[in-house]
Amino acid sequence: MLHRLTRNLSRHCLLAALCLAVVLPAPAPAQEPRMFRVEMVLVRHTDRQALHSEVWQSASVPRIEEALVLGEAPPESRFRDASGTPFGLRDVVTRLEQAPLYEVIASFAWEQPGLAPEAAIPVRILAGPLLGRKVPEETPGFTPWQIAPVMSPIMDRAPVEPEAPKPLYEVDGTVTLSLARFLHLQTDLLYRRATQETLPGDHVWTLEGGQFAESYISERRRMRSREVHYLDHPMMGIIVEITPIE
Description:
This protein is α+β, with helices and mostly antiparallel strands. 15% of the residues lie in helices and 39% in strands. The strands form two sheets. The protein has a six-stranded mixed beta sheet, with no helix packed on it. A five-stranded antiparallel beta sheet has the order 3-4-1-11-10, covered by helices on one side. β10 and β11 form a beta hairpin.
């Protein structure tokens, strides 16, 4: 009798477990990150007074080696160059081209996922004319970790290839969009101005004998989607609009 009762109880428990498995929903698949379209216009200020009021300062752009180049991003990154599509800031560009105090350097458009700040990927920005090639820094004839004892023959030292000249554009750096509770845009850009004048701050010489001043533009801004934002700098302005892709 007890054995039959135990068997019936086990059968009912199994039946209840099967029914519960049918009723309970399956685990939800991982949600894909939201997609956004970024439109950006870079303009230079033509005011000569601003040229002399700016303290030019060079810097190293962080994470520039990790940046994605528009048009060369792998498909799995979900970054897509959209420069050939209709441009929402076209009217803004037209008005800027007619304004005497501004000159349009370049415009960009791309689509990307909204990633968390710790996973956000910078986008490489190269714009404006090529100003020249930077003089490469001198490198030792051997790598530091291969320094041989004094008595070792010089041939034991591993040669290092000389650094190739670096092309220098008017604007070079990265733009990083991240999404937490709000959208944030981080700009890390170097703006360069060719000049033969004496300006306060850092100057860089090219292999061709040209001289230009260099200024680092770093700003983090909270952004509202579907609104046009303006990031100002004494030498360059940045107009940005971010639109969610439904």
